[in-house]
Amino acid sequence: MSEEDEQPRPTRIQQKNRSVILEAALTVFSAQGFRGATIDQIAEAAGLSKPNVLYYFASKDDIYRSLLTGLLDMWLDPLRQIDPQGQPLAEVQRYVAVKLQMSRDYPRESRLFANEVLQGAPLLTEILGGQLREMVDGAASIFAGWIESGQLARVDPHHLIFSIWALTQHYADFEVQVRAVLGEGHDPYAEAGIFLAGLYDRLLKP
Question: What pTM does this model have?
């Protein structure tokens, strides 16, 4: 490959501007949805001109896809951290706690991802059937090994993972509803942490 064919590495300013655009896009997409969001809104939220935004990203689709791909990678990371040599119940409980903490720390990201899936995931179908499925199958295989060795109660490992997603991401995707029902003086995430730890302890102890 010649020097002319090599892609120059982005400068710190370019990296910063890309990050600023993606952060602004997250705010706009999570509030307006993909169809309702515009490049003009993203540019305004980023404090940049529309041509400047389009210098870094070819289109709204390009921004959205970059945002979702990065989000999915972050979402999958806790699955990668499951230790096959660890103590089974502790590993599952750690995964539950991390997923709940992510819902608390990244509610916009959770809602954006949920909205994409509810729309049929047109921009993520290939990734969902590839990278995501591969990671989930790997974690489910670890859980299945622990179940077969008698270290966890007999449950379907894939549906165990689905249940963890549902019971943790609910607090981000429906946070307004949760807080409205609980009322003042409650910390939904702290209370959920205690509840879920007890729930999975009772469910999974052999």
Answer: 0.81
